[in-house]
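LOG
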Amino acid sequence: MANTLMVIAPYWYQGTWVFDDESAGLNKEPFVAGVPEMIDNLTKGIPNARSGFRLIFSSAPFPGYQRELTWVKEEYDGNWYRVEGQLMEGWLCPALLRYFESAPGKLYVKAEQLQPLYPQS
């Protein structure tokens, strides 16, 4: 059984947002085609987001989600999603299928500031 909620920690690298997920076999996987702008919008209130932030996502709504993305179409083995209530669309590459068996009709996302591993006293 797969997780209902997934989490990655995107960060800024060579001019775009990327993420690593060893369990999914991904290293510096870039976000492209409208998704960097979607992430910029999502992380506006997070200090130093480009150094890394937590992105929680699911195909089902969860408490506190910030954006609902609706599937638009498939293209080049990836999938286009539209942010509900905003004029933003972005293409998620085939790496999406490392998390879901098929492209979900909806994605729900939340961005949070990363907490330090060892809080300062």
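LOG (cont.) second protein
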Amino acid sequence: MRRTLAFALLALVALGVATYVAGEQIEVVVLRSFDAGGAPFDTKVWAVDYEGDTWVRVANPQRH
């Protein structure tokens, strides 16, 4: 029982690490914009090409 639980926990941690790496290191574009005073702001945009189309993921569900 303990071995099964340990394996499940390890698999969950591995999935979390893989998700982080895929989400933060692969297919990430940094969009730099500037406010009225000229101060830069960087925004991460996740872009994926799938079957000839580009899909963009926005981290904030309030944005369209």
